[in-house]
User: Which sequence fits this backbone?
């Protein structure tokens, strides 16, 4: 077992050998529920959708175990020796390991064939409180369409090398025989556990009718979310993050999540910013009571999942400006009904600006434009423009600011 930041690498024993797994933890280390994520057929736990969903769920206080099935990713063993039954067994192996070393997982999440596998596993695990499938087939044998051109060869010679997603895999007849013996619908009918189905109408790998069959078979409480516009692998990060947000909100009804505790301690300061280096530029920002995300736009290498640092700087100035104007207008009993503050930060040359300054060359410049809504005369509007320049954040930005930087030592 090895640890890096809030992510722990695990080696989990299984009937087939050893499974490579990663436990993603909330940044503050407080886990209120554990979830197991089973990836899609021939994929791995490093697939973008798995990583994005896992890391987003940690913000909800959920510890997520993402692992590679035997012969895939970093797990040992031969893929051709596996089948649907062994996939189900490995989910149970992971469950038992986490239950022994941490606490019993309460959530199972499966993508594609991994979704079918977690439905089977859930029928055998009494502690599971919530089940989520993403683009899952209604029957395991649906996966045969990925190598339908090779079925004759597999049945005749016992095995064949097939091409799936541009990669070669050996499929044995025992795999075909195994998936054909499962009646997943009868399993779903008897699960009687909270079940969330997520599926895209545009899924051309596992068509949407599979979701309809699963939903029809399941008992309440059951929920369906249409992932309109997404592909089967949720290759767009925004789709994966949306799925994670939906799952995080949904499971809170069925597990002991405590969202008010899912923040990192500010250690007595006003705010803490946290960046896991594996998350590109996506930064979590916490105060004692609130949380938000900062990022950089795609154009500069970010994922655009939140405002940029300078947009957040403008946000502080904008918020302070409108609050100050509200207080002043109320004190004066003026008819200020709404106020909009539009801000843009840029570097500008002093020659472009009609200002009196000793600075030369490029300087920091914030354009602040204000729209007042209400019955105000010209004198009142001019006074409000003056007051807008006196808000505390405006004063801070235009005064000399001293920033002291030092290493934090526990």
Assistant:
């Amino acid at each position: 077992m090895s640890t890096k930041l809030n992510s722990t690498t695990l080696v989990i024993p299984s009937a087939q050998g050893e499974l490579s797994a990663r436990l993603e933890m909330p940044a503050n280390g407080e886990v209120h529920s554990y979830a197991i994520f089973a990836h899609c057929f021939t994929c791995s736990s490093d697939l973008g959708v798995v990583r994005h969903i896992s890391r987003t769920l940690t913000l909800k206080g959920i510890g997520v175990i993402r692992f590679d099935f035997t012969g895939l990713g970093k797990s040992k063993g031969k893929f051709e020796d596996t089948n649907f039954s062994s996939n189900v067994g490995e989910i149970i192996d992971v469950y038992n390991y986490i239950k022994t070393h941490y606490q019993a997982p309460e959530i199972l999440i499966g993508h594609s064939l991994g979704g079918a596998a977690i439905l089977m596993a859930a029928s055998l695990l009494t502690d599971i409180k919530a089940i989520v499938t993403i683009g899952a087939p209604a029957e395991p044998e649906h996966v045969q369409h990925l190598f339908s051109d090779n079925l004759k060869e597999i049945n005749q010679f016992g095995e064949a090398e097939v091409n799936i997603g541009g990669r070669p895999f050996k499929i044995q007849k025992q795999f075909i025989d195994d998936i054909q013996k499962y009646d997943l619908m009868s399993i779903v009918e008897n699960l009687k556990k909270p079940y969330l189905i997520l599926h895209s109408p545009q899924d051309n790998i596992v068509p949407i009718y599979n979701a309809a069959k699963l939903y029809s078979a399941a008992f309440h409480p059951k929920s369906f979310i249409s992932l309109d516009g997404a592909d089967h692998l949720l290759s767009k990060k925004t789709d994966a993050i949306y799925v994670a947000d939906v799952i995080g909100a949904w499971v809170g009804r069925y597990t002991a999540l405590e969202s008010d505790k899912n923040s990192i301690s500010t250690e007595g300061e006003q705010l803490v910013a946290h960046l896991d280096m594996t998350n590109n530029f996506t930064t979590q920002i916490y105060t004692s009571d609130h949380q938000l995300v900062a990022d950089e736009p795609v154009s500069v290498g970010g994922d655009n999942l939140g405002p940029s640092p300078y947009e957040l700087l403008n946000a502080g100035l904008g918020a302070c400006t409108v609050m100050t104007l509200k207080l002043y207008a109320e004190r004066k009993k003026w008819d200020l009904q709404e106020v909009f503050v539009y801000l843009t930060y840029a570097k500008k040359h002093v020659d472009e600006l009609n200002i009196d300054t000793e600075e030369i060359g490029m300087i920091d410049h914030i354009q602040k434009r204000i729209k007042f809504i209400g019955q105000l005369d010209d004198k009142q509007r001019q006074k409000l423009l003056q007051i807008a320049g006196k808000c505390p954040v405006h004063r801070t930005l235009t005064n000399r600011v001293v920033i002291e930087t030092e290493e934090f030592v526990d």
User: Anything to note?
Assistant: Residues 136 and 327 are 54 Å apart (CA to CA).
